[in-house]
């Protein structure tokens, strides 16, 4: 079987890293997989990106045109919008290729236009990394237009100007005449597909994102802390950059509220922030803070997760964040709210703690509960076992092969 993995980038961004891992898990299992991208940065010979100056310039122009369209929508919603307007050469290239299956991932942002997607004649499997496919131009949304249709009379009050989302959704209805086989990394996103006005009768399968559990293994916490210069004998709570506070989906305001309830409650608790260097004016969160900065290689990330006692994911809305999967693979429990795709990562009081949705008090209680268990090591063992049972290549690759076969049978190939 020969598959083409199609994604805007190879390793830049969460969706790209997830797609890249799927690509290599397939190759390791003997599948002839080639990854095609518009932005190749990994230097991987199995990834094919634009080579000519003309092709690179054309990609840049498509991105700028998409930005101009986004400016026509005046909205208080900070979520990125992708109208996917300009055509590309991808449909022609894919249709004449020798690929048995086209596996699309994050192909928006003007990599493929909406019309391009409808012009692909090969069997297509599409792994969703957000809500864009069944929404308008938005990648995430909290309103219900995607469930009932984007009508003139149900536009949310925070939008004005040209109704970019309705225009984009209507173009999807026109150009996507034949159902594609959808894959979602979480049960929540699969339910969204089934409930959507656009794709309610399309086939959808839940296949978790893969991680190489042979490579992503726990490091002895004391060794990891020594190598990273972190204190050895105190409880450490890890979370992502506070700069993410500009996106309300990430829930950093909820994390800050939970930390306020933890002051004086967990002896010696210290915070570790990754993805951010120390700011000029450090924020006083009531605990000592260690800023790790940006870590780009897997070895450093393994050390970081292994050094922590707990990873906090306070998101209001999330699919299947890579950080949660990586943390479990390194044997580090995760705390999150019981919402969206996060229950696919966290089993309550087994490999972490699922707090009541958006309740900072219960989130703080979860931190207390996990820290009380840290001496036994049971949560770490359960976290690691969960990663192997849910996200390892031995589990995920056969599921994708089954989806590929289903897509090919429908297409009659």
TrEMBL record:
ATP-binding is among the record's keywords: no
Keywords: Transferase
Annotated ranges, domain Glycosyltransferase subfamily 4-like N-terminal: 13-214
Source species, domain of life: Bacteria
Record-linked InterPro entries: Glyco_trans_4-like_N, Glycosyltransferase_grp1
GO molecular function: glycosyltransferase activity
PANTHER family for this protein: SULFOQUINOVOSYL TRANSFERASE SQD2, TRANSFERASE
Official protein name in the record: Glycosyl transferase
């Amino acid at each position: 079987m020969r598959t083409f993995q199609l994604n805007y980038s190879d390793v830049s961004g969460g969706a790209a890293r997830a797609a890249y891992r799927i690509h290599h898990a397939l190759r390791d299992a003997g599948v002839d997989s080639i990854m095609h991208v518009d932005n190749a940065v990994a230097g991987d010979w199995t990834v094919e990106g634009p080579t000519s100056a003309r092709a690179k310039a054309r990609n840049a122009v498509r991105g700028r045109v998409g930005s101009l369209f986004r400016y026509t929508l005046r909205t208080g919603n900070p979520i990125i919008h992708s109208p996917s307007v300009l055509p590309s050469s991808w449909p022609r290239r894919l249709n004449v290729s020798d690929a048995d299956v086209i596996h699309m991932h994050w192909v928006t942002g003007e990599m493929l236009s909406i019309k391009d997607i409808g012009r692909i004649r090969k069997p297509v499997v599409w792994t969703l990394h957000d809500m864009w496919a069944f929404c308008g131009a938005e990648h995430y949304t909290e309103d219900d237009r995607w469930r009932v249709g984007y009508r003139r009379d149900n536009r949310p009050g925070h939008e004005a100007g040209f109704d970019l989302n309705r225009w984009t959704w209507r173009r999807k209805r026109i150009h996507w005449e034949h159902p594609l086989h959808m894959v979602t990394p979480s049960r929540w996103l699969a339910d969204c597909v089934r409930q959507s006005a656009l794709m309610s009768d399309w086939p959808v399968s839940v296949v978790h994102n893969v991680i190489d559990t042979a490579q992503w293994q726990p490091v002895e916490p004391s060794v990891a802390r020594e190598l990273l210069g972190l204190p050895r004998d105190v409880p450490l709570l890890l979370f992502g950059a506070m700069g993410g506070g500009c996106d309300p989906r990430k829930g950093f305001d909820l994390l800050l509220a939970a930390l306020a309830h933890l002051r004086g409650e967990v002896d010696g608790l210290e915070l570790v922030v990754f993805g951010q260097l120390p700011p000029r004016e450090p924020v006083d969160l009531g605990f000592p803070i260690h800023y790790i900065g940006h870590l780009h290689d897997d070895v450093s990330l393994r050390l970081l997760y292994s050094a922590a006692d707990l990873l906090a994911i306070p998101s209001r809305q999330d699919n299947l964040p890579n950080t949660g999967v990586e943390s479990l693979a390194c044997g580090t429990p995760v705390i999150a709210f019981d919402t969206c795709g996060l229950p696919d990562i966290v089993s309550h009081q087994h490999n972490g703690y699922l707090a009541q949705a958006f309740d900072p008090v219960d989130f703080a209680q979860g931190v207390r509960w996990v820290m009380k268990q840290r001496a036994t090591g049971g949560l770490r063992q359960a976290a690691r076992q969960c990663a192997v049972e849910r996200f390892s290549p031995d589990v995920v690759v056969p599921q994708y092969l089954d989806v590929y076969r289903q897509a090919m049978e429908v297409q009659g190939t």
